[in-house]
Design goal:
Number of strands: 7
CATH superfamily of the largest domain: HAD superfamily/HAD-like
Radius of gyration: 25 Å
Number of domains: 2
Oligomer: single chain
CATH architecture of the largest domain: 3-Layer(aba) Sandwich
Strand content: 15-25%
Distance between the termini: 43 Å
Order of helices and strands: HEEHEHEHEHEHEHHH
Strand order of the largest sheet: 5-6-7
């Protein structure tokens, strides 16, 4: 059992007639992109935490494989919620990625719940966002795209307000030709639309991996 758990596997003892007869080693295969996804999350300024109901030995082995330093293992669904609340009480914004029934409560409690599209219906219902791909890189893409979208919105608002702040006093003083004002307004709309269309050029990890 110790050998199996040290290798990141869950050990299940098989017994009959009151005696242990064997040990089955069960393991989830870590996706090849998981380590890359964890590294990408770190580059975004996020701190990955592995929160799982599995035993500590298995959890630490998996965490070491994908590059996660902080591990909270052996927790029930209520314990996952407590961990999320603790992080929130420390002033942190928590994003939770999960796919199982045991993750549903923590997904609902977190500031941003991301459910894997390949997961259970309960997890999908509890989350704020459903990731179509059952891959952690999808969570990275979602965060990157949301940040870029927010920057675009702020940029559009800045130029819209800047235009009005500059033009309104001139118009009120009679120094702005209506034809020029109309052209400037049209140009402002074109800028906002063109700036927003730049989001169509966003490239996610799935597109990068295509030949």
């Amino acid at each position: 059992m110790a050998t199996a758990e040290a290798a990141g596997r869950t050990a299940v003892v098989v017994a009959w007639d009151g005696r242990a007869r064997g040990v089955l080693a069960v393991a989830d295969v870590v996706k090849p992109t998981s380590r890359e996804a964890v590294a990408a999350l770190r580059r975004l300024g996020l701190t990955p935490v592995l929160l799982t109901g599995d035993n500590a030995t298995v959890a630490k082995a998996v965490a070491a494989e994908v590059g996660i330093d902080e591990v909270v293992a052996g927790v029930l669904p209520a314990g996952k919620v407590d961990v999320v609340k603790r992080l929130q009480d420390e002033g942190k914004v928590v994003a939770m990625v999960g796919d199982g029934v045991n993750d549903a409560a923590a997904l609902a409690q977190s500031d941003l719940g991301l459910a894997m599209g390949t997961g259970t219906d309960v997890a999908i219902e509890a989350a704020d966002l459903t990731l179509v791909r059952g891959d952690l890189t999808a969570a990275v893409d979602a965060i990157r795209l949301s940040r870029r979208t927010l920057r675009t919105i702020k940029g559009n608002l800045f130029w819209a307000f800047a235009y009005n702040v500059a033009a309104l006093p001139l118009a009120a003083a009679g120094l702005l030709n209506p034809m020029i004002a109309g052209g400037a307004m049209a140009l402002s709309s074109v800028f906002v639309v063109s700036n927003s269309l730049r989001l169509r050029g966003f490239t996610g990890y799935a597109a990068r991996s295509r030949p």
